[in-house]
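Allow me, if you will, to draw on your knowledge of protein folds for a short while. The matter concerns a single protein, recorded as an amino acid sequence and a row of backbone structure tokens. Could you please explain, in whatever detail you think fit, how the structure tokens follow from the sequence? I remain grateful for any guidance, and I place the record below:

…
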Amino acid sequence: LYVLPMTAWIFSEIFGFLPHSKDVLIMCLQEVQDNHYGMQLKPILESLGYHCEYKMRTGNKRDGCAICFKRSKFSLVSASPVEFYRPMIQILDRDNIGLVVLLQPTLSQSAARVCVANTHLLYNPRRGDIKLTQLAILLAEINKLASDGKDGHCPIILCGDFNSVPDSPLYNFIRNGKLIYTGLQIGKVSGQETGHRGQRALTNPLWPPSLGISSECQYETIKDAECPVDDRDNSEKLMADIKNYPMDQQTASAICHKFKLLSVYSHYLPGSNKTEVTTCHSKSAVTVDYIFYSAAKHNGAAMSGEDGHLQLLGKLALLTEQDLWTVNRLPNENNSSDHLSLLAKFRHKL
């Protein structure tokens, strides 16, 4: 199972990574212009055996996210386009979007389904409050589609441009499943803001109750308000986690999610302290693009490939800032995008 997320596409790049194009089973694309998608990307990929789903940004924005998968390997169970813009909620006044699909392996109808999510979060380094709220909406949609009906989830792949750097509070929230945000400045959430702007602390709560999403990043309904067992257990777990923090943080506000997600990339070149980057242009050279995937947990340690989850078999190596400066940064004559492509290979137990 190969998963390939990109911000700009050319077919030689998509299929040039692998000796056989049939090996690319799932593609997650960002910044796909709507007319390019309709006139070029979708027709060509469909002729190559792919099914394509697309969601354009709201407002007058003409680009969006696409998820394309091999019809011979997966069938579409459901697709959910996610709009982060909510006209009645002040914090959600931006046109970013997400896309979530639920896939059934065709080789075995009894095999666990796979939930694939793709997004491009807000860029503004000073508005970490908006980024976290957009992410919470996406996680709620993933929770809805990926639920196995037994208080668990099918394997999850989460891709996209999160406009956040490794080890930032937003990144750690995805990885660790919880974020204590009392006193956290909005400009520090994504780790991109290096100046003195964005010093206002995040509000409590992060988003208004009218959004209908709990602090556990799950949709709230009338039934949810009656505190079902799974929500109560999750809230108790969150409070237990908070109690492990120093006393001055135990009254802190927090958000959490149930997913156990690992990053395909370690963000450092193997055997060195040189940082990988996924974009390099005149303003910055950082990692903002990721592939996260679900892993089972046993005895407190993350174990890939257990309990029907995904096992990471390989990945496409990334480059350093110094490497990209030698080819005149991005984009250049050989790379039409200002982002590098990420590629991962997984084993999914059928």
Notes: The first strand starts at residue 2 and ends at 6. The chain has six helices and 18 strands. The two ends are 12 Å apart (CA to CA).
